[in-house]
TrEMBL record:
Signal peptide positions (record): none
Protein name: DinB-like domain-containing protein
A Pfam short name: DinB_2
DinB-like domain: residues covered: 51-180
InterPro entries, per the entry: DinB-like, DinB/YfiT-like
Domain of life: Bacteria
Length: 188
């Protein structure tokens, strides 16, 4: 799968769309796991960040496969999506403010994220990845269960529910962690 432009069920459109509710499901997310269980899964990216912290800079700059993103570009992609969701949704919910979340041009966002990754050191990317994911987790841990499962309107008028967003992001994390682990295994 080309990391530069994904299509089909693995696309950001598909997994972000799942975090938005349909008209028939306006009040509660459909993931019945507890908030603690969902957040435990969400912590997985933090442990992974520690795994890649010691990767040498030359490896960070190598494409993960011909025509694919580098490790820097993938980590830049992960951290900028975390930053966006914190600033546009999670942080706003915690502050009791309207969401700033809206449908984006995913290809343009991902291109900017890849460029951002190319412009940073691997160590800085890991630090920022940990910073943004930790901010999200800390904020979500402090939210009452009702807010965690409540529907909030985004700027497009679509409902957004944190308890649906978490499993989608965990899927996205695992998708990229698998790619990176395979790349690092083949590079050693």
């Amino acid at each position: 799968m080309n990391a530069r432009r994904r299509k089909g069920p693995a696309s950001f459109t598909a997994w972000y769309g799942q975090a938005r509710l349909t008209k028939e499901d306006k009040t509660m997310g459909n993931d019945v796991r507890s908030k603690a269980e969902l957040l435990a899964d969400f912590h997985g990216l933090l442990a992974f960040a520690e795994e890649i912290r010691s990767v040498d800079e030359r490896t960070w700059d190598k494409p993960m496969a011909p025509g694919k993103w580098t490790l820097k570009e993938v980590v830049g992609h992960l951290l900028l999506w975390d930053q966006y969701f914190y600033e546009a949704a999670v942080g706003k919910i915690a502050e009791g403010k309207p969401l700033m979340l809206k449908h984006l041009d995913f290809d343009a966002f991902n291109a900017r994220a890849a460029q951002y990754g190319r412009d940073q050191s691997g160590g800085k990317l890991v630090e920022e990845l940990v910073l943004w994911r930790s901010r999200i987790i800390d904020t979500l841990e402090a939210l009452p269960e009702t807010e965690f499962r409540r529907s909030f309107p985004d700027l497009d008028g679509k409902p957004f529910v944190i308890s649906r967003y978490i499993p989608d992001f965990v899927w996205h994390d695992r998708h990229h962690m698998k790619q990176i682990r395979e790349f690092l295994k083949s590079s050693s």
